[in-house]
Structure formats: structure tokens, C-alpha cells
Amino acid sequence: MNKYKKLAANTAVFAVGSFGSKILLFLLTRLYTHHISSVDNSTKSLLEQTANFIIPFATLSIAEAVIRYGLDREYDNKEVFTSACAVEVIGMLEMLLFSPLLTLLPYTQGYVFLLLLFIIASGFRQLSSQFVRARGMVKLFALDGILATLTLFIFNVVLISQFHMGVTGFMLSSILTDFCSGIFLWITAKLWHFLDKKAFNPDMIKIMLRFSIPMIPTAVLWIITGFSDRLFVRYMVNFSVSPDVGDSAAGVYDAASKVPNLISMVSTIFFQAWNMSAITENDSKDRGKFYYQIFSAYQSIMFLGASFMIALVKPLSAILIDASTDPAYARAYEFTPVLIIGVLMMSLNQFLSSIYTATQKTTHSFWTSLLAAVTNLILNVILIYQWGVHGAVIATFFSYFVCYIARIIDTRKLIYFKVHHWKFSINLIVLFTMSIMAIKEPPFLIPAQFAFLVFMTAFNFSAIMQTLKKVLKRG
To answer: What is the CA radius of gyration of the chain?
Structure first.
């Protein structure tokens, strides 16, 4: 099987395992907005983001090293997994030691214990699933994704819809889902066979930590980029001339981000397969050509998908967001188009990060992520003050865009591949034009958006077809 077919096959497996389950997750968005007010939805989002902020520190991002060295045939899988488990246990104990500091955050009141369980369960599942993927068990990895989402859906329906537990129900649902998933993988993949005290290797731990530690600030910086928007929107009430700030506005911002997550869903499915290919093909002679072919097609698909989502942003928002219980949600679609473009930029950055992973240059990932986070923080202060939520979404786009510029320059020094900057620029201009029209809703909106969709399809068709021919080619 050639490298294109293998990538396509792995992507198909992850897609089958993820697409249906991801749709269920988007249905949960409607459940949340129906049963949880915009204010409580903001609290839910902040708790989730806080957990995601702490997880890299508690786990030392060791799961990133598991996929990198688990796929590398030069390293023993028992040593990789045993070392990773030891690192994660130590990290979790340190987190518990510093956990009293969480009480200093105003929105954690009454949720600290659940927050700690959320982090432990997430780390447990993350380590287990990444090692399963590193062993090439992609079908089991995909099956776990389906079962985990079904479990999450059931727990949410029972705890939030039936027992009306609100934010607490959301936290418990996530905790129970991750623990069930981790146990399922340990049993089906017999992970205990790879946990052996004789395989404990301090040198292996040093190699893995040298790779994973730079990923900690990288992961944290990406979270800050998304997390700071919500914090600034929620707490700049007394420091902004815009009415679009406060608890309710932060909840609306979170709801508006649900539609762009469709882009993130597609990107994540592909990245799971692509990251494996990038690592295994790192030493191939034609890797530059491989990167060019895949990146061109990926970029075209992302831009084309984003254009359709922007054109359909209002009906998609109506489907995913229930505004009947809180009228504030009805405005969410106004902030969505630019967020879609921002998430698209984040997806392109994610693709480029695979070069840092494959070449073990994770410090480069840190510096480019730092650039994005600093840009985001500065622009949040300036733009949210003036334009509220609209300022936050603009800040999000520019931070990801700055990171993209830095990475497209830097990564091509590590692995050179051609990039059509002119094509990228035209695609971006068209998306922003469609976004402005979707927000302003002029009388000629429908025919204009249709014309743009036809143009985007024709403009991006060639790159997609060229890669498809590579996939269908025999041999």
C-alpha cells in the first residue's frame, strides 16, 4: 500500500469512528443551550478550559511522546508505555499537592473536586488511547471514540436533561465517560502487558521528556489563545465601552464557537491519520513532495468547507443552538463566520505542527505558539474594549494567522515543500467577503453567496483531484 493510500485508509477509519459520534456531540450543544443558561454555560466553558489548561502540566504532555516514540520502531513499546505511566502518576500527585490554589478562581467554587477528577480521568484516557494508536490499532481507537461519545451523550441526557444537574451534570458526564473509555482500552488492548517494572528505563524517560516538556507550554499557549477570549469577554464589564461583555456575552461567545467546531472536527479526524504518516515517512527521500501534495489538498478542502459553512451559518446556528430558553443565544450566528476562519487557520497550524513532531523540533512549536498567545492577549485587551465579542473573534483570527505566517516560514526550513501563497490569499479574501455579507445580510445575499461557492469549488477543485488520483493509483 503506497503512502497516499495508507493515509487515506487511516483517515477513513478515523472518520467512520468519529463522524457519527461528533454529530452526537453537536447535538449536545443544543441540549446544553436548552437546559443551561448563557451565564452557567460560560461557567461550564471556563471549567472545561481550566481543566485543559492544567492537563499538560499534570501529565507533562507525555501522551505526545507516546505517539511519537510508540510509532518509532527503534524504541521498545514496553519501555515507552511503562515510562509514560510513571511520569503521569508523578505528575498527577504533584497536581493534587497544588490543588488548593484552584479555590482562588471565582468560577471554581463548588467544583474543585470534580475538576480534579476531570483532569485525572482525561489524562488516563488520553494516555491509553494514544498508546493504542501508536501500536497501529486504529480500528480499536476509532471504536473507542464511538463508544465514548455514545456514553457521554447518555450521561449528559440523564444527568442534565432528566436530573437537571446543570454544570455538575456536565462535569460528571465527562469524568465517567473518560474513565469508562480508559478501562475499555486497557481490557481490549491488554495494556497491562506493556506495563512492566523491568521495562522502566530512566534513559527512555529522559528522551520522552526532552520531547514532551516543550509541548507543555505549547499546549498551554493554545489554550490561552482560546481561553483568554472568554475570560476577557466575561470580566471586562467595567473596562469596555461595548455592551457585548459580561457573563451572558461569554456564554453567547461559547455557543457561537460550536459551529466552527465542525471545521475542527474534520481537521482532527485527518490530523490523527496525518500525524502517523508524518512520523513514519520522516526519513523518506520524497517527503517534501508528499507534504506539498497533501497540504495543497488539505488546504483546499478546508477553505471549501469553510465557505459552505459561512454561507449556511444562520441555519446551522439555528440547528445547533437552542435560543428558546435564552434570547441572548439568538445573536450567536453574528460572531460565527470570523470564528470559522479562525478555526480554519488553527487547523492549518495543526498540520504544520506535525513537522515539528516528526523532526523532534518541539521547541519551535513552543515559540510559534507563544507568538500566537501574546498576539491574542494584546488584541483582546484592545479590541474587546471597543467591540466586545466581535473584538474577541477578530483577535482569535489574527493570533492564528500570525502563527501560520511564522510556521509556514519556519517549517519549510526543516522540510521544504512548495506552497501557493497567492492561492491562500485569494481563498482568504473570499471567505472574509462572505463573512461580512453573512453578518450584514444584504438583499442579494443568497445569489452572491451561491456565486462565491461556485467560485471556491472551481478554484480549489484541481488540488483535491490531483491528490485523489495519487490515492487511487495502483501500487
So the answer is: 22
Domain chopping of the chain, boundaries: 226-475
Residue pLDDT, tens place only, 426-444: 999 999 999 999 999 999 9
How many whole angstroms separate alpha carbon 198 and alpha carbon 397? 49
By residue count, the chain amounts to 475
**Overall pTM > 0.85:** no
The distance between the two most distant Cα atoms of the chain, rounded to a whole number of Å, is 72
- Tens of pLDDT, residue by residue over 305-345, are 999 999 999 998 888 787 776 777 888 889 999 999 999 99
